[in-house]
Structures are given as structure tokens and as C-alpha cells.
Amino acid sequence: MLRAFSTFYIIVEIILIIFVLKFQGLEIYAAEVLISGILGLALIFKFGILTFFDEMRSFSTKSIFRELGIAMGGAFLFLPGILSEIIGATFIIVSLFLKKHTQPNFTQNFGQNAENKGTFDESEIIDVEIIEERK
């Protein structure tokens, strides 16, 4: 199954590369591969890997998929080829759509605060007044 899919992917990729080279030229294709590779690396490191571990602390399923989607999209952009860039752009667009339509997850902190409500001891408050002396 995987061999059939990879063969199909390689055939479609070669056809798309030949199509782009025929109508756009080698310079445009080389520039496109270089720019998408740099953009892919930037997305992987800036938005994917670094923020993924921060999002794991809040453990919102949508936020984890959102960050993984940006990292996967960056990885596909880093690969040379037209089809891989289409797949990478699709991952990024879906991830940004999820980012736009999700709210922050405050349920964990709310649950912790609700449990501690009523157990607050007012003797723990320290009231301080600062008086400045004039010389």
C-alpha cells in the first residue's frame, strides 16, 4: 500500500515539475524551491517546534493539532517539489484556520480556582503602608 502511494506521489511530482519547468523555466522553479525551503524551515522552528511544547502544558487538543499542522506544513514546504508544497500550504491554511477559530482553554485553571474557593484564610493577607519621611 505504501509502495503504491509513494510511486503515485513520485509520478505526480515529476509530472508537475516538468509542467512548471516547461511553462515557467528553471530559474522560477529554483527560486520557488529555495524560497519555500527557507519558509518551511522558519515555520518548523518558529511556530512548530518551539510553541508545540508550550501548548502541551495547556493540553488543548485543537492547539496541539494547530501547532503540529504548522510544523508539518513547514516540513512539506521544506521538501522540494510542487505537490509537497501544495500539501504543506494546505496544512498551514487549515492550522491557521484552527488558530483563528479557537479560544484559549481556561478550564483547567478555572477548576483549580473553584476548588480553592472558600478555603481562603484572611490571616494570610499582609497589609503594608509605606510612609516616606522628609529630610
Description:
The protein is an all-alpha fold and 135 residues long. The chain has a domain at 31-104. It has helices at 2-23, 26-58, 61-78, 82-100, 107-116. Helix 2 (26-58) packs antiparallel against helix 3 and helix 3 packs antiparallel against helix 4 (82-100). It is elongated, with a radius of gyration of 25 Å. The model is unreliable at 108-114 (pLDDT under 50).
The first-to-last residue Cα distance is 87 Å
The count of β-strands is: 0
Helix count equals 5
Q: If you average the pLDDT, what whole number results?
A: 77
Structural class, from secondary structure content?
Answer: mainly alpha
Oligomer: single chain
**SSE topology string:** HHHHH
Question: Cα-atom Rg, whole angstroms?
Answer: 25 Å
Provide the low-confidence segments as ranges: 108-114
Shape: elongated
Percent helix, as a range, is over 70%
Strand content is under 5%
The major sheet is characterized as: none
